[in-house]
Design brief:
alpha/beta, 200 residues, single chain, 47% helix, 5-stranded parallel sheet, two-stranded antiparallel sheet, Oxidized Rhodanese, domain 1
Length: 200
Amino acid sequence: MKRKSTIIALLLAFAMIFGAFSVFAASGLPTDKTRDAIANSAKVQSVPTLKNEVDAERFAMDLYEQTTKGKYKLVDTKTLMGWVNKKSAVVVDTMPVGWYNQRHILGAVQATAGGEDGSKGPAFLMTAAEKKNLLKVVKKATKGNKKKKVVVYCGFTKCQRSHQAAMYLKKKGYKNVYRYAGGISAWVDANYPIEGTGVE
C-alpha cells in the first residue's frame, strides 16, 4: 500500500512540475524588495530548467519528501479550480504582497511565507511576524474553523513558501491543509481566472 501511495504521489508531482515552469514570468511583476531575489534565482535554482528525466525525477522526489515531512496533502489544478468555483476552500497566496497585488488566483487571500535576505536570493524560512500574520489571515478567512479546507500556493513548484506555510498550519492544528505546488504559474498556464492590478 505504501508503495502504491508513493507511485501516485510521484505521478502527481510529475504532472505539477511540467505544468509549472513555462509561464513563471506570468506570475506577476516583482516589487523592489523582490527584484534582487528574482535576479539571483538562477543561482539558487529557484526556477530550474528541466533538461531531462533525471531532473524531473529529482523534483518529484523533493516534492514527495516535502509533502511527507509536512504531513499536508497536494491538490492539482483542476481540483483546485472546482474548489474555487464552489468556494469550498480558503486559498492563500504566500508570495510577497507585490506579486499578489499584480496577479493571484481569484478570491485568494495573501500572507507572505518567507522573504528574501538581500544577498543570497530567496530565503523561504518564515519569520515570526510572517507566522503570526499567516495565522491571523487564515483564522479570519476560515472564521476560526480549523477543519475548513485551506490551500496554500506560491509561484512555482520549486518555491518553498507554500511548503513552509502548509507545514506551519498543520503544526498549528489545521486539519485539511493542501499545497498547490504548481502555484500561480501552473494556474495561469491552465488559463484559469486570475485577478490583480496586472490583469488586463
